[in-house]
Amino acid sequence: MNLHYQVEGDGKTIILIHGLFGSAANLGLLARSLKNKYKVISVDLRNHGLSPHSDHFTYQEMAQDVLDVINHLDIDQFSVIGHSMGGKVAMALAAIAPNRMEHLVVLDMAPVSYQAHRHQNVFNGLQEVNKHIISIRSEAEHYLAQYVEDAGVRLFLLKSLAKQDDAYQWRFNVDGIIANYSTIMSWQPAAEPFMGKTLFIKGQESDYIVPEYRDEIMRQFPQAKAHMVANTGHWLHAEKPEAVTRIITNFLEK
C-alpha cells in the first residue's frame, strides 16, 4: 500500500491525516500555515484521494500505511495531526510508534466506538451518483441533493469527484467504505496508554467529543490536554483556521 503524499516546508516533521471521504487537500489551510516552520507531510489514506483502494480498512492497517511513508522518507521523530477518522488513525499510529511521536493532535474525535450511523444519507447519495454516467459535475450534485440536504456537505464530497476518461467518478472507494463502515466507527484501545504529549481540540457545536468520553480519553492518553473552539462544528479547522492553527502552534512549541 503505497500512499500518495506531498511534502512541503522544512524543519521538524508534522504528519497531517484527513478524515472520512476526504483527502490531503482537506487540511490544506493548516498545511500552508505550518509549512513556514515545519516539514509538513500530507497523506491520502487508503481508499481516499490518489492512494490505492483496498478491501482491508482497519485503523491498524491505516496507521501502518502512514508509518511506511514516514519510514520511506527516513524520518525518525515526528508529530501527527489528524481530523475525525484521521484522528483515530493518528491515535493508532501513536500505539505502534509511541517513542517516535513527539506530539499527537486530534481534531474533534474521541478514542471510542460510535454507535450511531451518521452517514446513511451520504452513502445513499454516493450510490445514486454511481448509478449514472456523469459527464458534468452539476449532474452529480443533482443526484447527491436527493439525499444530502446540506450544500456544504455536497461541496465537500464533490471535491473528490474527478474525471476519468469520459466520465466523472469518485476518488474514494465507495463500496469499500460502506463495507467497512462498522470498523470505521469502532475503536480498539491500545494495550498500553500513550504517554506522550497529546491535545484534543473540540468544536463547541460538535457531538463527537462529549463529557462522558473524558475518562476514556484520559485512560488511553494520560497526558492529554483539551481545547474547545467556540462556535464551530466538526469542521473546526475549516470554519476557524486561524484559531485552530494558533492553538496547534502553541502546543507544538511548548
TrEMBL record:
InterPro entries: AB_hydrolase_1 (IPR000073), AB_hydrolase_fold (IPR029058), Epox_hydrolase-like (IPR000639). Residues 14-245 form the AB hydrolase-1 domain. Keywords: Hydrolase. It comes from the Bacteria. The keyword Hydrolase applies. GO terms for molecular function: hydrolase activity. Pfam families: Abhydrolase_6. The keyword Hydrolase applies. Gene3D superfamilies: alpha/beta hydrolase. PANTHER family: PROTEIN ABHD11. This is Alpha/beta hydrolase. The lineage of its organism: Bacteria, Pseudomonadati, Pseudomonadota, Gammaproteobacteria, Vibrionales.
